[in-house]
C-alpha cells in the first residue's frame, strides 16, 4: 500500500490512514489470538465472527465480578468484541494478517517509502486512545531529566490506534500568519466549575483535567464555546485581540483540551453522504466529519433518504 501511494500521490497531496498501535494493541492482540484459535471450525467468515462475539460475551461475563485491574481491562476488551458489528470483528480480529506498530517504528517505515509525517487526524480522544489532559500530566509528573517521547507517551496513555496524515517528503513547514490563525474554528467542551480567588476561574474538561484562567476574555470565550459544542466558532469572531491569545490556544489544543479546526463541519449527522448511508444501512452508525463514530441520529432513520439506503 505504501509503495502504491508513493507512486500515485500528487506532490501537493495528503495521505491519511490509521493503524493499530503498540503498546495498547498488545492486549487486543492477545484477544485476537484467542478468538482465532477458538473459531477455526466456522464454515464462513460471518459465522466465525458471530462465534467470536459469543465467546467474548461468555468470557466477559465469567470474570466481570473480578476487581483486579487486569481483569477489568480484559472485560473492557471482551465487551468491545461482543458489542461491535460482526463485520468489524471479522477484519479486526479474524483477518490472517493484522500487524501493529510502535509509533517510532511506523514513522521509520513510512520515511523509507518517501513520506513525511504532517499531523494526527484524530483530536477527539475517544476511549482507548490518548486521554485529553494526559500529556500535560505526564510531563509534569515525569522524573527530572526523563524525555517523554511519543513511544513513552503511548505507553503511559494506553494508545491503541494512530490516525496520521502524511505527505511526500520533503515537507516545507512554515508558521501560520495571524490572519490564518484568526480564520480557524475553535471548539471546546471545557465547563466552568469553580472560582479560585479573585478573578480566577477553573474550567474542567470531560476527562477531569482542569484549566485555570484569570483572563476575563478567555473566560467568556470558553463559557460561550461550551454552549456550542461539538460545533465551534471562528477565532476572529470570538476574540477581539487574537494575537494575545494565540500561544494559550495553541497550548490548549496541543494538550487535547480544545480543538482548532480548519473548518467547522456543522451538523454531525452527514446523512447526505453515500458512505454515511452505507454505514447506516449495514451497521446503524455513521462516521461524522469530526472523525467519530455515532449512532444514526433520532428521527433520521425514518427519512426517505435512509429508506432508500436500506432498500438498496
From TrEMBL:
It comes from the Bacteria. Residues 87-166 form the Methyltransferase regulatory domain. Keywords: Methyltransferase, Transferase. GO terms for molecular function: methyltransferase activity. It holds the Pfam family MethyTransf_Reg. GO terms for biological process: methylation. This is Methyltransferase regulatory domain protein. It comes from Caballeronia hypogeia.
Amino acid at each position: 500500500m505504501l509503495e502504491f501511494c508513493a507512486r500515485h500521490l500528487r506532490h501537493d497531496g495528503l495521505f491519511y490512514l490509521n493503524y493499530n498501535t503498540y503498546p495498547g494493541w498488545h492486549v487486543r492482540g492477545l484477544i485476537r489470538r484467542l478468538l482465532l484459535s477458538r473459531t477455526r471450525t466456522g464454515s464462513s467468515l460471518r459465522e466465525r465472527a458471530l462465534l467470536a462475539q459469543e465467546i467474548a460475551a461468555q468470557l466477559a461475563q465469567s470474570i466481570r465480578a473480578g476487581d483486579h485491574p487486569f481483569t477489568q481491562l480484559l472485560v473492557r476488551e471482551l465487551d468491545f468484541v461482543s458489542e461491535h458489528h460482526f463485520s468489524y470483528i471479522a477484519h479486526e480480529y479474524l483477518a490472517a494478517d493484522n500487524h501493529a506498530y510502535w509509533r517510532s517504528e511506523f514513522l521509520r517505515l513510512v520515511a523509507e517509502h518517501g513520506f513525511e509525517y504532517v499531523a494526527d487526524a484524530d483530536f477527539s480522544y475517544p476511549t482507548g486512545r490518548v486521554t485529553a489532559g494526559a500529556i500535560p500530566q505526564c510531563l509534569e509528573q515525569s522524573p527530572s531529566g526523563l524525555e517523554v517521547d511519543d513511544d513513552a507517551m503511548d505507553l503511559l496513555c494506553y494508545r491503541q490506534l494512530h490516525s496520521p496524515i502524511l505527505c511526500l517528503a520533503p515537507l516545507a513547514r512554515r508558521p501560520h500568519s495571524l490572519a490564518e490563525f484568526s480564520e480557524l474554528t475553535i471548539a471546546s467542551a471545557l465547563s466552568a466549575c469553580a472560582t479560585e480567588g479573585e478573578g480566577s476561574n477553573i474550567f474542567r474538561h470531560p476527562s477531569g483535567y482542569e484549566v485555570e484562567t484569570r483572563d476575563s476574555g478567555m473566560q467568556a470565550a470558553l463559557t460561550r464555546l461550551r454552549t456550542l459544542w461539538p460545533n465551534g466558532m471562528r477565532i476572529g469572531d470570538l476574540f477581539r485581540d487574537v494575537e494575545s491569545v494565540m500561544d494559550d490556544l495553541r497550548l490548549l489544543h496541543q494538550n487535547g483540551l480544545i480543538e482548532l479546526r480548519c473548518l467547522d463541519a456543522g451538523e454531525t449527522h452527514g446523512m447526505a453522504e453515500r458512505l454515511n448511508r452505507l454505514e447506516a444501512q449495514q451497521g446503524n452508525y455513521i462516521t461524522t466529519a469530526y472523525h467519530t463514530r455515532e449512532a444514526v441520529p433520532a428521527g433520521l432513520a425514518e427519512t426517505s433518504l435512509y429508506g432508500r439506503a436500506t432498500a438498496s
